[in-house]
Amino acid sequence: MPLRARQDLLSRTALGVFRLNGQFLAVSEELARPAGLTAAWWQVLGAVLREPLPVAGIARAMGITRQSVQRIADLLAAKGLAEYVPNPAHRRAKLLRPTEAGREAIGRITPGHASLATRLAEELGDAAFAETVRVLNRLTKALDAVAEPRTDA
């Protein structure tokens, strides 16, 4: 494939992902608002629902800066939606976990989230929906791989 065609594919992929990001942010804000959350608060709380994580771990999982997560985590803690607990693996890097109020807020999002998931599955079809997840994961891994410093340069 000619270089120009590859550049076009990269540009079209990036623009599509940027648009998709904007769409997901708008939908997430709508889903989170009735629970008294923002999309960013929901994202951080969602990252620690299964297990407490340090702020740096949340940032890595979300692909954003540690400082952004720290600001949101501090707000969530101040509002009683999350709390910091000791980290047995690192004295200074506390773990963030949701409080019961945080879990309840996330629970209020669940019906709208389930409805959106159902509508998307109906629009795409279950197989195509699952394939979309696989393709996005592949793209993420590929970008991670090409972003690593090259040893052959």
Automatic annotation (TrEMBL):
Residues 7-141 form the HTH marR-type domain. Pfam families: MarR_2. PROSITE patterns: HTH_MARR_2. Transmembrane segments: none annotated. One of its GO terms (biological process) is response to stress. One of its GO terms (molecular function) is DNA-binding transcription factor activity. This is MarR family transcriptional regulator. It comes from Streptomyces subrutilus.
